[in-house]
Write a structure and sequence with these properties.
The complex is a heterodimer of chains A (247) and B (352). Chain A has a seven-stranded mixed beta sheet with strand order 2-1-3-4-6-5-7, with helices on both faces. Chain A is of the alpha/beta class and 247 residues long. Chain A has one domain: Thiamin diphosphate (ThDP)-binding fold, Pyr/PP domains (Rossmann fold), CATH 3.40.50. The chains are: A alpha/beta (247), B alpha/beta (352). Chains A and B meet through β1, α2, β2, α3 and α5 of A and α3 and α5 of B.
Chain lengths: 247, 352
């Protein structure tokens, strides 16, 4: 018997992602979680600059396109005046961890009651694949053409671990979209992050390892394999700070 | 009854009374008392106070509050206002209303702590990237400043722009008798986010800059036409008209009155809005005027450009425009009078 393929109601328009991109899966999961929590008509997105901006074109929700890296600060202002709305930042690794690292860290430092979703594809996707703070050692990008030399550029940052270890955040996890099992686990992480906010437990973050097949110079299948075999070695999947006071 | 209050404190309390319910900012002299006061005061009225990690974060928190339709405020000085330009440009682009207070201090870069008017050009030209203007109010007394706070929000919300209250270090730090305005009921602007997508927005990638540009041009033209504010005195028969705002505007008024008593036919235009610049005030000037003279607390002369353009708009005669620049502080009446006489005897030459 045919089963209706149900799309979350707040997803309205097609989003223009490259072939093999992971953003679409992640946005879908966020929207499914919001709907399942009864919060899809009670949400404001603070959107980063880059590929993450496409969320703004696809959803029919309150959303603001923030300046490069500032979503953590903008979401703080939103949540302080609308504490009963769900406030979610949606950013890439370049936006959240390079230009926006101050705003990202400080939102976590204050344990701001927002949910941060960071799509980590280890490069600046929208601008054509430059090195970001999560680019892997040796990874070739348009600004590390000989492979990232961590001796002079620093080592890839593991943001969820940092805020879980250093600040009293409510929830911190890293997931991946590299297999159906990973996607199912990721949905659980996102749901926990949103529930933490709903219960006013404090700051929650889910980083998602996501393929950028075009800028990585790989097929979509190769990109998924790269996540599984290489990225997860440096960026472990899992929960780094679990919720303390869940029901 | 009027109460003696420090400028920054009076302005901060006036902001609470104007319905401000979010403040976010970072300390910097000589504006800091505004945030110090609001850190205790806003929670008393159910508002949010956030000590931000930087001015950049502060203005972006203001964007967050403004996007939810709340009257949001930040204040700073010198390089702090430079950091806020990114956010002011974003607010302007998103057509969100907010108020930024610049308690101007003198100098480039880190600058100094001296009271000044050196940020005139930046404030009146938008300041950040793009093609926008902020409405700029420039009070010359604490009383005028506390009355301009609610005006700043009303104008910002009417046109959906950012209003800047451009005060000066001395105005923030000095005390004067002040009657505070009454409380207004805090309101939510109809475009504010409520989580339900009540107010529809055009998709990020569906915007048409060409179409928007037509509306932008109309909006700024309407502000220019409708919102020029100034005070003038003695311009109809003046041989020389002074142009000065803020605290220097106040001492220039004293100089003008004394010079009148001494037999000189002089007048004053004191802009109350620095943008839109009160060009209309210049239409009332004596057609036979021999010169206009700006009195400014900066080094290079900034107001003189706008004054010269305004006189050009209102007169076909090539009327000279002079600039008396006192760098920082508030020029004393005797200095303005002495320099006026240097203009008369040719020691100080016109700028235009």
């Amino acid at each position: 018997m045919a089963v209706e393929r149900k799309v979350p109601s707040i997803i309205d328009n097609p989003m223009n992602f490259c072939p093999g991109c992971g953003h679409g899966i992640i946005i879908r999961l966020i929207c499914e979680c919001l709907e399942e929590l009864g919060q899809d008509q009670n949400v404001i997105f603070a959107i980063g600059v880059g590929c993450s901006s496409n969320l703004g074109g696809g959803l029919v929700t309150d959303r603001l396109h923030c300046a490069h890296g500032r979503a953590g600060a903008v979401a703080t202002g939103m949540k302080r005046v609308n504490p009963d709305n769900m406030v979610i930042t949606y950013q890439g690794d370049g936006d959240a961890y390079s230009i926006g690292i101050a705003e990202s860290f400080n939102a976590a430092y204050r344990n701001e009651n927002i949910t941060v979703i960071t799509v980590n594809n280890t490069n600046f996707g929208m601008t054509g694949g430059q090195m970001s703070w999560t680019t892997m050692e040796g990874q070739k990008t348009t600004t590390s053409p000989h492979g990232r030399d961590c001796a002079v550029t620093g080592y890839p940052i593991r943001f969820p671990e940092l805020v879980a270890n250093e600040f009293r955040v409510a929830y911190a996890a890293r997931g991946s979209v590299s297999s159906p099992a990973r996607i199912n686990a990721l949905k659980g992480y996102i749901k926990n992050a949103l529930e933490a906010q709903l219960n006013k437990e404090g700051y929650s973050i889910v980083e998602v390892l996501s393929p950028c097949a075009v800028n990585w110079g790989m097929t979509p299948e190769e990109a998924m394999t790269h996540i599984e075999e290489d990225l997860t070695q440096y960026f472990p999947i899992g929960v780094f700070q679990d919720r303390r006071n869940q029901e | 009854m009027a109460e003696m209050m420090k400028g920054n404190i009076a302005i901060a309390e006036a902001a609470v009374r104007a319905g401000v319910r979010l403040y976010a900012g970072y300390p910097i002299t000589p504006s800091t008392e505004i945030m110090e006061y609001l850190s205790g005061r806003l929670p008393e009225v159910g508002g949010a106070f956030i000590q931000a990690e930087s001015e950049l974060a502060g203005i972006n928190m203001v964007i967050g509050g403004a996007s939810c339709g709340v009257r949001a405020l930040t204040a700073s000085s010198g390089p702090g206002i430079s950091l806020k330009q990114e956010g002011i440009s974003i607010l302007s682009d998103e057509e969100l209303s907010a108020v930024v207070i610049n308690v101007v201090r003198y100098g480039n870069g880190l600058g100094t702590l001296y009271s000044s008017q050196c940020d005139y050009n930046r404030e009146t030209r938008g300041g950040g990237n793009g093609d926008y203007r902020c409405i700029v109010l420039c009070p010359s007394s604490i009383q005028e400043a506390v009355e301009q706070i609610s005006l700043a929000y009303e104008l910002a919300e009417k046109y959906r722009v950012v209003s800047v209250l451009m005060t000066e270090g001395a105005l923030g730090q000095m005390m004067e008798p002040v009657d505070l305005p009454d409380f207004v009921e805090p309101k939510r602007n109809p475009w504010g986010f409520d989580g339900k997508y009540t107010y529809k927005k055009i998709g990020i990638f569906d915007r048409d800059s060409m179409k928007e540009s037509v509306l932008l041009k109309e909006k700024y033209a309407a502000i220019k036409e409708n919102e020029q504010r100034w005070e003038s005195e003695g311009v109809e028969d003046a041989d020389y008209v002074f142009v000065s705002y803020g605290l220097p505007g106040r001492s220039t008024l004293g100089a003008v009155r004394q010079l009148r008593d001494e037999g000189f036919r002089v007048g004053l235009i004191r802009p109350i809005t620095a943008w839109p610049f009160p060009e209309k005030a210049f239409a009332q000037i004596n057609p036979g005027v021999k010169g206009i003279i700006t009195v400014e607390a900066n080094a290079t002369g900034q107001l003189v450009d706008d004054a010269a353009l305004a006189i050009k708009k209102n007169s076909s005669a090539n009327i000279p425009a002079y600039a008396l620049t006192y760098v920082y502080g508030v020029p004393p009446i005797k200095s303005i009078k002495a320099d006026f006489k240097k203009i008369l005897n040719g020691e100080i030459r016109e700028v235009y």
